[in-house]
UniProtKB/TrEMBL annotation:
Protein name: Guanidinium exporter
Location in or out of the cell: Cell membrane
Keywords from the named record: Cell membrane, Membrane, Transmembrane, Transmembrane helix, Transport
Membrane recorded as keyword: yes
Family: Belongs to the drug/metabolite transporter (DMT) superfamily. Small multidrug resistance (SMR) (TC 2.A.7.1) family. Gdx/SugE subfamily.
Main location per the UniProt record: membrane
Record Pfam families: Multi_Drug_Res
Membrane topology: Multi-pass membrane protein
Transmembrane segments: 33-50, 57-78, 84-103
Amino acid sequence: MPWIILTLAGIFEIAWAIGLKYTEGFTRPLPTALTVGAMIVSIGLLGLALRDLPLGTAYAIWTGIGAVGTATLGIVLFGDPAHAARLFCIGLILAGLVGLKLVS
């Protein structure tokens, strides 16, 4: 169950990171409120997962899910560059996440 909670925390991290783009510098009230809400949920779920998971592993997985998800959605939603080197680096982060899970 802690891994599921941690995964949800990572998904909410992606949500708030993407949400930051839609707040337009915190000038749009609804996207700002949703982004802040996603931040609170993300940190709250991370805290719950930390009851059972090692800090270093959980934090690395949480930030990794956020980094991979945000980079991927940046490509899909905002036209961020998707050249081979960038995709390879995203793949390296993903491989690291899988490795951490396997050794934990």
